[in-house]
From TrEMBL:
Domain of life assignment: Bacteria
Feature: DNA-binding region: 27-46
Lineage of producing organism: Bacteria, Bacillati, Bacillota, Bacilli, Bacillales
Keyword field: DNA-binding, Repressor, Transcription, Transcription regulation
InterPro entries: Homeodomain-like_sf (IPR009057), HTH-type_TetR-like_transc_reg (IPR050109), HTH_TetR (IPR001647), KstR2_TetR_C (IPR041490), Tet_transcr_reg_TetR-rel_C_sf (IPR036271)
Residue ranges annotated for the HTH tetR-type domain, each copy included: 4-64
Protein's name in the database: TetR family transcriptional regulator
MF (Gene Ontology): DNA-binding transcription factor activity; transcription cis-regulatory region binding
Gene3D superfamilies hit by this protein: Homeodomain-like, Tetracycline Repressor, domain 2
Length: 197
């Protein structure tokens, strides 16, 4: 049982290091020094540095999927689902800033087989967002001429959070999501603007 706790501690240090120095810029020695154990002893808890990266990115992918699935399968209106989905996405990023940074930036450093696993989960996640948007259009709640770019815009806004969000800042994830949703749903053009008699 202590070994499980030790591995979680090592993972936490690896997440921080990968988020700051990048996967390739972090050495096993960096991880072992941060963990307070010798490099050789590190291998009693892990098999390789890539194992750590896969664990971090796989958990990240699962966190996004687990947050979104009940919303997609729920009974709310399309707009309410979209609002809840963005809140859920931003909450995952905000509550796991180091892991989100690694997930967004370092997953492509994985070997082909492992990268394919993460890619599959990312594709599933994006298809769930497409389903939300398609449902909104079908029900007449949303007007999207380009579903792909609408999804990219929403997820890009949520994903970029890791660059500027601070837990001790003035806004909670829910408040940030609400502000994004206001812009997304209402747009920024003045109503009736540009009309000339």
């Amino acid at each position: 049982m202590p070994k499980v706790g030790r591995k979680e501690e090592i993972l936490a240090h690896a997440r921080k290091l990968f988020s700051v120095k990048g996967y390739h810029g972090t050495t096993i020695r960096d991880i072992s020094e941060r963990s307070g154990i010798l490099s050789g002893s590190l291998y009693a808890h892990i098999r390789s540095k890539e194992d750590l990266l896969f664990d971090i990115t796989n958990r990240g992918a699962d966190a996004f999927l687990e947050a979104l699935t009940p919303i997609v399968e729920g009974e709310d209106s399309a707009i309410e689902k979209l609002r809840k989905a963005l809140i859920a996405h931003i909450r995952v990023v905000a509550n796991h800033l180091d892991a989100a940074t690694v997930f967004f930036h370092e997953w492509k450093a994985l070997s082909n087989d492992r990268r394919a696993i993460i890619q599959s989960k990312r594709d599933t996640y994006e298809s769930m967002w497409n389903r939300l948007l398609e449902e909104g259009v079908r029900q007449g709640e949303l007007s999207c001429r380009d579903l792909k770019f609408t999804r990219l815009l929403i997820l890009s806004a949520g994903n970029w959070l890791y660059q500027w969000y601070r837990p001790d800042g003035g806004l909670h994830p829910e408040e940030i999501a609400e502000r994004f949703m206001e812009v997304i749903l209402q747009g920024i053009a003045a109503k009736g603007g540009g009309d000339e008699g």
